[in-house]
Amino acid sequence: MRNNILLITGGTAGHVIPSENLGNFLLSKNRNCVIISDKRGNNYINNFNGKLYLINSSNLNGNIIKKLIGLCSLILGFFQSLFIVLYFKPSKVISFGSYASFAPMLCCTLLKPIYKIDIYIHEQNSIIGRTNKFFLKYCNKLFLNFDIISKIGIRYLSRTHVVGLPEKHLQADLSKKIKFEDQMFSICILGGSQGSEFISKFALNLIKIIEEEKKINIKFIFQSPKHLIDEIKTDLEKIQSKFIIDNYFHNIDELLENTSLMISRSGAGTIRNLIDYSIPSILIPLPSAKDNHQFENASILVKHDVAIIIDQKNINYNKAKNYIYEIYNNKKKAMLIREKLDKIKVKNSNSLIYKLIDYEK
Fold first, then answer.
1. Which of 89, 265, 290, 301 is 20 to 30 A from 82, alpha carbon to alpha carbon?
2. At what angle do helices 317-329 and 197-213 cross, to 10 degrees?
3. Does 174-344 match 4-165+346-359 at the fold level?
């Protein structure tokens, strides 16, 4: 009997890392599991213990020439995916969305009735992505990171399950972590997997304001685009701030364990990290995010009073500064935020998905 599981992902870290986490969990359960990703997504797959297949993909953005080149890439990706699917013969397929998943999902959908493939979709954001929405009618079950069941069409409700985001094993016991009493208050600035020039410049200006007022003592963990690192480092040294800076942190888990507050975009992966590590946050949604999903993601945390939103088009430094002062000075509020974040956390996501893809039978 075929018992092969194919995970489809690509694009950004928010799509890729959860698939890698679930893949390693399935392998630990002795399931034959492989991943299909595009070349961009491959940048974020660092610790997968199984076989990885790379395909061409495109989001079809740009002028007419770029669109034509992208279409050729998409067609090539379809045939690459077709070969992989026919060779691997999966019995179950789990797609994590993004434009990179379109070609392999199209192959699996076409072959579904012939090879009896069970298709599952995982949506990381608070709005169903376009690729996931396109294939929704063909899936056996829809897995959600957030409880957005009210936004799902009634015809899909019986197939929908809130499972959270597949997590990797965390060594630390986060419930025992002490952020505020026993160590220096740390603000982590993250611009997402691509880095963000706007986030970096906003954070630097905010740091200058805070340091000038000299009311609090803070250390900064700064992820910056590579081309801005020297400039930011020079400015931080001038105002004598304590900081570490890089364009990408490979020890992000360790850093998050020691983060008191975060300034960041609000992609699904970031929101899940904030919840998992119990971190209050200042969120600046990317205005150009498709379907405004980053604002919707951030709104979930704001609704629970564990974050604030700063509008990129109407910057309010005072709002951000005052929130930092409030978290810094009000330890009871900081602890209450941790408790609220713990309540909205979906625990054991990998195990939930594992059961729901048929192994409870």
1. 290
2. 60
3. yes
